[in-house]
């Protein structure tokens, strides 16, 4: 009986010891609980609106022709943009931009109309405020839609000038009528499109930073909190025990971040609850053992917080959601497979936004379980390396 009971008691001892460490480490509490709870609220609140409307912009129209004036009128008529100022030069527009009175500047050169009349390519310049993606998106989208509409009208005029009827010109400009409908984000909103990925990255990064902070603190204190009973065959018990401790905490935070937050802030939440819970388990386990593997190599608790925050942007793009997967080079695709956040983001968006079933996200779930097994073995090897180093 002792042969079966002793390992369980050892694991329970490690679980209680790790939970004690977490609740007696200020940095761990700050990262796990304060950041884990507040960050989803903060991001959801900041991007509470899917779309901005009537974003003020300044226009510098050096051409002052009928074509340029029509372009400006159309821009002002879009729901995204409001032409708040008409400036005589770029210095005046720049001053308004620096005072945050406008979030974009449209510059039309003095040869705009002449180029169009001579059947040449005309140019306009757009400067956007990048302090928020919402400003950039609204100004860029409004200007781009007007430009496409204007291009169509210019083509119609040119074909009509060649003697074609309105029907023939229309057929030349748009031979096939088409309409694009975004099924899972009908308003083409920034929040419903990108925030689900942020929720996954918040869980991934806070768990990673918390575990590495605990490892760094232990190294700085000269104690790695390795139980006295540990032997060559007991390393698995320590890794399992620590993994259970982190899983207990982050299972709750995952339910909060991935299930409660979407409901509170009106994000897409088409998920079937059992499917989402079945997805959360391997994601949290894979992230836990990944963090334990990497954390063994840090000798200070600040090291990971200094070195790895830039990786958040990389992890955002290599998911294949924020950036088209077909445009991601093979190297970065392979690199993304090392991180649980890649499968996590792909699976969560499919389940929560598109209402996918467990079978439809099977590749992501299998990938997370493979990562769980691989990183569990690597975490055991890194712990053994830590013991030898000590």
Percentage of residues in strands: 5-15%
Q: Please provide the ordered H/E string of secondary-structure elements.
A: HHEHEHEHEHHHHHHHHHH
Based on CA atoms alone, the radius of gyration comes out at 28 Å
- Mean pLDDT, to the nearest integer, reads 85
Unreliable stretches: none
Query: Counting H and I runs of at least 4 residues, what is the number of helices?
Result: 15
Major sheet details? 4 strands, mixed
**What is the oligomeric state here?**
single chain
Shape: elongated
Q: Write out the strand line-up for the largest beta sheet, numbering strands in chain order.
A: 2-1-3-4
Description:
- The protein is mainly alpha-helical.
- The chain has helices at residues 2-23, 26-46, 66-77, 90-98, 112-117, 133-161, 166-173, 190-221, 235-264, 273-295, 303-307, 311-318, 330-336, 340-353, 362-389, and strands spanning 55-61, 81-87, 104-108, 125-128.
- A four-stranded mixed beta sheet has the order 2-1-3-4, sandwiched between helices.
- β1, α3 and β2 (81-87) form a beta-alpha-beta unit.
- The two termini are 34 Å apart.
């Amino acid at each position: 009986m002792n042969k079966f009971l002793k390992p369980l008691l050892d694991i329970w001892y490690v679980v209680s010891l790790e939970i004690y460490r977490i609740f007696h480490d200020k940095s761990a509490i700050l990262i796990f609980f304060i950041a884990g709870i507040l960050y989803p609220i903060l991001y959801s609140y900041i991007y509470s609106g899917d779309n901005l409307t009537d974003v003020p912009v300044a226009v510098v129209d050096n051409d002052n022709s009928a074509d340029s004036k029509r372009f400006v009128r159309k821009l002002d008529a879009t729901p995204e943009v409001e032409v708040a100022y008409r400036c005589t030069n770029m210095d005046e527009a720049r001053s308004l931009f620096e005072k945050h009175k406008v979030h974009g500047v449209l510059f039309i050169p003095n040869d705009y109309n002449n180029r169009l009349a001579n059947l040449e390519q005309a140019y306009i310049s757009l400067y956007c405020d990048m302090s928020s993606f919402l400003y950039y998106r609204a100004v860029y989208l409004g200007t781009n839609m007007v430009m496409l509409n204007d291009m169509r009208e210019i083509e119609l005029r040119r074909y009509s000038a060649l003697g074609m009827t309105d029907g023939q010109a229309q057929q030349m400009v748009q031979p096939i009528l088409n309409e694009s409908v975004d099924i899972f984000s009908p308003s083409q909103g920034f929040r419903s499109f990108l925030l689900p990925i942020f929720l996954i990255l918040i869980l991934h990064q806070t768990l990673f930073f918390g575990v590495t902070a605990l490892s760094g603190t232990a190294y700085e204190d000269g104690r790695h909190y390795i139980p006295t009973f540990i032997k060559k065959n007991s390393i698995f018990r320590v890794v399992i025990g620590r993994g259970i401790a982190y899983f207990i905490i982050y299972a709750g935070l995952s339910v909060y971040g991935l299930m409660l937050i979407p409901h509170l802030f009106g994000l897409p939440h088409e998920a079937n609850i059992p499917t989402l819970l079945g997805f959360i388990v391997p994601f949290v386990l894979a992230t836990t053992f990944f963090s334990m593997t990497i954390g063994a190599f840090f000798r200070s608790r600040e090291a990971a917080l200094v070195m790895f925050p830039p990786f958040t942007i990389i992890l955002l793009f290599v998911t294949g959601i924020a950036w088209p997967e077909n445009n991601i080079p093979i190297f970065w695709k392979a690199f993304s497979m090392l991180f649980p956040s890649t499968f996590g983001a792909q699976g969560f968006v499919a389940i929560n936004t598109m209402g996918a079933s467990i079978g439809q996200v099977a590749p992501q779930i299998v990938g997370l379980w493979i990562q769980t097994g691989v990183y569990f073995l690597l975490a055991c090897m890194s712990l053994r390396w830590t013991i030898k180093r000590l």
